[in-house]
Description:
- This protein is of the alpha+beta class.
- It has helices at 2-6, 12-15, 37-50, 126-132, 140-156; strands at residues 16-22, 51-64, 67-78, 82-85, 91-95, 101-113, 116-124.
Amino acid sequence: MKIMASGELTELHEVIHPDAVNREATAEPPDCRVQGPAAFAATARWLRSAFAELAFDIHETAASDDLVVVHCTMSGRQVGPFVTYDEHGRVAQAFPATGRQMAVTHTHWTRMRDGLVFEHWANRDDMSQALQLRWVPPTPLYLCRMALAKRQASRRQ
């Protein structure tokens, strides 16, 4: 998690299995939906493109056999659009930068293979994130900004 926030993406090869799958990538850009370290690097780029000062404060970890669970808080300041994608890889929604800080709890579940992350799931408090960043309830002006951001993101695809 600290690697995802720090930007030291070359280190992902040391902790992510070549066949690893991120089960949370369904709303992420298409390059996050492949297997292995490249997918996790794409997820890190996606998060860091929207959030400056991205950090994960780890509170607790637990392990049983090949399962490792991490309870943490993700924090950052939204400086870029946060773009989500549909199942076909098309832009689903775009939340323009608000400049606001957020801190939300996550629980990450990873299955290990050969000492490396092989599978990943997460439980996130997305509603708290949306409230802290003032995505909801949206003002009429923010809805217009969202429509513009979605159009711009779709054109870049």
